Amino acid sequence: MLEKGLFKKPNNPLEIHEKAVDAQQPSIPEEMCVSCPSCKETLFANELEENLSVCHSCGHHFRIGARQRIDIMLDPDTFTEFYGHMVSTNILRFPEYEKKLQKAADASGEKEAVVCGTGRIGGFSVAVFAMDHLFMMGSMGTVVGEKITRIFEYATENRLPVVGFTVSGGARMQEGILSLMQMAKTSAAVKRHSDAGNLYITVLTDPTSGGVTASFAMEGDVIVSEPKAFIGFAGPVVIEQTMRQKLPEGFQRAELLLEKGFVDDIVKRRDLKAYLARLLDLHRRGT
Amino acid sequence: MEAYERVLTARAKGRPSGLSFITNIFEDFVEFHGDRRFADDKAIVAGIARLCGMPVTVIAHEKGSDTQDKVERNFGSAHPEGYRKALRQMKLAEKFRRPVVCFIDTSGAFPGIGAEERGQAQAIAENLMEMMTLKTPILAVLIGEGGSGGALALSVSDEVWMLQNTIYSVISPEGCASILWKDVSRVKEAAESLRLTAEDLLELGVIERIIEEPEDFSEIYGYLREQMCETVSKNMALPVETLLDNRYKRFRKLGVREA
After folding, report:
1. Taking a contact as any Cβ pair under 8 Å apart, which residues of chain A between 115 and 154 contact chain B?
2. If residue B232 lies in a helix (H) or strand (E), which one and from where to where?
3. Nearest CA in chain B to A169
4. In the prediction, which pLDDT does B243 show?
5. Which CATH superfamily is domain B3-246 in?
6. Whole domain around residue A216: which residue ranges?
7. Confidence of residue A31 (pLDDT cuts 50, 70, 90)
8. Which residues in chain A have Cβ-Cβ distances shorter than 8 Å to B128?
9. What pLDDT digit, counting tens, does each position of B124-176 carry?
C-alpha cells in the first residue's frame, strides 16, 4: 500500500526556493498571459483583447467590463455617458457595505455596476446600458435600479430603442428590500417604453441571475445571449440543495434556454454588433 | 421585538394561511385552477369572490394545512405555473373590471430544476411588467413571509399592507448570512441588517400600512374586510389613468431621490 502523502511535494524551504526560481524562468511576464478557463490554453492578453476577449482556441467568451463592452458594441466615439456621477451610499447602514463599495470601485474603475448613455450601433441611435461584473458582480441596488429606470424614461421620451447588456448576481443584499423594489421600478419603466412602441433588445451575458433575470433582463422584445452564458433565477448550489441531486450538464446555460424557448438566439460576440445593427434596421420607423 | 423573532413569528406553525384569509374575509369564493400552459400550481390559490357585495379577484399563496397538503402545495413555494395562473386571473379581473386582492405568504419562488427550465425568472418578470399597467385596482397584503421575487410577483399593487408580525425581504436572513458571511449562525444579525419588519418597511416607504394583530386572531378578518372594502372602493372610483399613474409613482420613488 502506498503511504499517504508519498506524492505530496515536500514542504521545505528548498522547495519554495525552487519554485521561486521556476517562476522567473518563463520569458513572458505572467500578466501578459491568461489561461482559458475552458480549454486551459495559454493566451496572450493582447491577442485575447484583440479577439474581443474570446478564446481563439475554444471560443470561450471571457467576461468583460462595461467600458470594454461599450467600446466593442458601439460605433467609435459615439457614446455619451449619462448619470455617471451617481454613487451608492449605505442607506440601511448594512455592515461592511462601504468597504465593499470601495473595493468594487477599485476593482472595476466604475462608480456603480451599470454604465448608461446614448450612442450609435451601425449608425442607428440607441440608448444603452451595460452592467459590470467587476462591481459587486453587477448586483442591483438603488443606484443601478435608478440608472436603468432613467435610461428607459429617457428613451421613451426621445423615442429611442434600448440595447441592454446584462451581467448580474441579482439584487444587492446590502440594500435589502429597496433592492427588491428596483425590480418593480425598472419593470415599470420598461413597460412604459414598450407600450409607447419602442424596441428593447436584451443581450444576456455570463452570468445573469436572480432579481435581474427576474426583471428587466427577461423583458426584452428580443432576448439574445452570448454562448454558454449562465442564465437563471436561483443559484445552482441552492437548487442542488433543494432538489438533493446533481444538476444536469449544461443546466442554466444559454443553449438550454434556447432549447426551452426563453431566448431568441445565441449570438457570438464577434457577430453581435452586426446582429444588433440588423435588428435596429428592421425596426426602423417609417418616416 | 427583535427582527429575528419577527422572522420566526411570520413563519410560525398555526399561523393562518392564505385560504383562511380568503374564506374568512370574502363570501362566495369560487376557485379556478391552472395556467392553461402547463399545470395547476397549488402553491397559489386563485379565484373570484365577493367583498362587501363587490366581485373581486382573490389570489393567495397557500402553504398548506397538514403534512400531505403542505407537500402538495410545495409549502407555498410557487413554480412558474403559479405566477402564470395568477396573471391569467388578473387579466380576467382587468377584463371584467374587478379589483384584485393578493395575500402574500411564501419563503420564495421555488428554486428547482423544473422551475428553472420553465422560466421562473421570466414568469416573475412578466408579472412585474403586466401588473404595473393592469387596468384595475390591486391591493397586496402580507400575511406571513414575503420572500423576495416570489412575493414581489404578487405585490406590484396600488397599496401594500403588512400584518404586524410579517416580514418582507430581498433574501432570507439564513441565505444572507450564509452568502455574505459564510456563517449561518449570524442569522440574527442578518435579520437585523436586512430591515425586514413591518415597521422598517413603513419607514422606508415600501408599504402603506401596518395591520395590528389582535390577541384573538379571528378578529382580524372583520377588520380587514372593512378596510379592504374602503380602499378598493376608493381606488375603483379613480379614473384608470390616475390609478396607473399613482401605481407607477409608488414604485418610482423607491430608492435614489437626488437629481
Report:
1. 142-143, 145-146, 149
2. helix B219-236
3. B179
4. 98
5. 2-enoyl-CoA Hydratase; Chain A, domain 1 (3.90.226.10)
6. 63-282
7. confident
8. 183-184, 187-188, 214-215
9. 999 999 999 999 999 999 999 999 999 999 999 999 999 999 999 999 999 99
